[in-house]
Design goal:
Blueprint lengths: L9 H22 L4 E9 L13 H8 L2 H11 L5 H7 E5 L5 E8 L2 H23 L4 E4 L6 E3 L2 H76 L5 H12 L19
Antiparallel strand pairs: 1-3, 1-4, 1-5, 2-3
Helix pairs in contact: 1-6, 3-5
Length: 264
């Protein structure tokens, strides 16, 4: 009978799979020449005269310009064939704490495209803020020509390794559960077979015992019958009577007496 496997056996293999996939991803990105660029434009939400009064408005204004309409308008202006979701995954709007400055950050594999997206989004954000709040917002710093290279190889390797770890772990768990179900069925079948075998052995032993008892009874009956039906012929009877009679000795003859001699 085989034993069940523990689900914890899936952990070591999942960790090994995650490490292997992570290493492959890291070296593939580095040797493949994969690069990402970070472009950052700065927006000031108020004019210079009101900077001190508006230094806590960055979070509010950042939420205002985080708009799907601004993103869609930016993509249309630059003629970039992306959907809003893809652009949103590459865009980050970061308000600086205790200030009136908002950073517009775009990360892309194309340096010029990242710079264009950040700068154009900053310009549209300024227009929206001035139209809504009339705050005197302006683009404080453009990103054109200043985008830097990002080394995200390790980050992507960790992400890929984590995904591989989870997926391989789930696969191993499914395989172990399937194996355990088969083992349970086999053990159940073996247990039933053993029970049937034991019942047969007990039945056979009982039959053998009964047959032996019957055989002994028959032998005893035959012996009794042979003893009770023993035939003795006339010759044996005569010899037996002679042997019996020879056991008694004749002491002598009784003397004759006259009538009255021994009468009392």
């Amino acid at each position: 009978m085989r034993n069940r496997k523990s689900l914890f056996l899936a952990i070591p293999s999942a960790i090994i799979a995650g490490i292997i996939v992570g290493m492959i991803t890291y070296f593939a990105l580095n040797f493949g020449g994969y690069k990402e660029y970070k472009a950052q434009a700065k927006v000031i939400t108020t004019n210079v005269e009101n900077v001190d009064d508006a230094k806590d408005t960055a979070k509010t204004y950042a939420a205002t310009i985080n708009s799907s309409k601004i993103k869609q308008k930016t993509l249309e202006t630059l003629a970039i064939d992306w959907n809003v979701g893809k652009f949103d995954s590459k865009l980050e709007i970061k308000p600086t704490e205790n200030s009136s400055i908002i950073d517009i950050v775009v990360v892309d594999t194309n340096k010029l495209r990242a710079e264009d997206l950040a700068d154009q989004y900053a310009e549209y954000s300024v227009r929206v803020l001035n139209n809504i709040y009339n705050s005197g917002a302006s683009v404080m710093e453009y990103s054109y020509g200043s985008a830097g290279i990002l080394d995200n190889s390790m980050r992507y390797a960790i992400i890929a390794g984590s995904i591989a770890l989870v997926l391989w772990g789930l696969i191993q768990i499914i395989r172990i559960n399937s194996y355990n179900r088969k083992v349970e069925k086999e053990n159940l079948s073996a247990s039933k077979a053993n029970q049937v075998k034991e019942l047969r052995e007990v039945s056979d032993k009982s039959r053998k015992k009964d047959s032996q008892v019957n055989l002994d009874n028959k032998e005893n009956i035959q012996e009794d019958q042979s003893q009770s039906t023993q035939v003795i012929d006339s010759k044996e009877i005569k010899e037996m009577s002679q042997e019996k009679s020879s056991k008694y000795e004749i002491l002598g003859r009784i003397p004759s007496y006259k009538k009255g001699e021994i009468d009392v």
